[in-house]
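Good morning N.,

You mentioned wanting to compare the apo and holo forms, so I went ahead and generated the holo version with S-adenosylmethionine. This is what I fed in:
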Amino acid sequence: MGIKPDFAIDLGCGVGRDTIYLLHNGWKVLAIDKEDTKEFILKKLDNEEIKRFSFKRQSFENIEIEKNNLLVANFSIPFCNKDCFNNFWKKITNSILKERLFCWEFFSD
Ligand SMILES: C[S@@+](CC[C@H](N)C(=O)[O-])C[C@H]1O[C@@H](n2cnc3c(N)ncnc32)[C@H](O)[C@@H]1O
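and this is what came out, ligand included:
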């Protein structure tokens, strides 16, 4: 597909499974989670990767999402409070720039 690393957001990053993968592959990544998992992630990064990494402690229910080229949200979206879900979904779709990607995995068998 010829996708070049650019700016990605990992929503509900947890301990950084996808964030770390993206950083290892040249992306700049903003990782977001309601829990403070920043230190777990930092331990897995080298100095150059740390420069491309940022972390925000934020809940989906009152989140602001920057424009991005790739939004990853694996196993996290269903945790959003249902009363806030429509607004959250709108913010997700509005945040992703042209020629963009949105990857998510819900829970399934
Ligand atoms: C099952 S883990 C998935 C972690 C990671 N995306 C992965 O695939 O390994 C779900 C993550 O979503 C975060 N989370 C759950 N509810 C959230 C909310 N309302 N706002 C922000 N993060 C939330 C949790 O703290 C947890 O780190």
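The helical segments are 17-24, 38-42, 47-51, 85-95.

Happy to go through it together on a call whenever suits you.

Best,
F.
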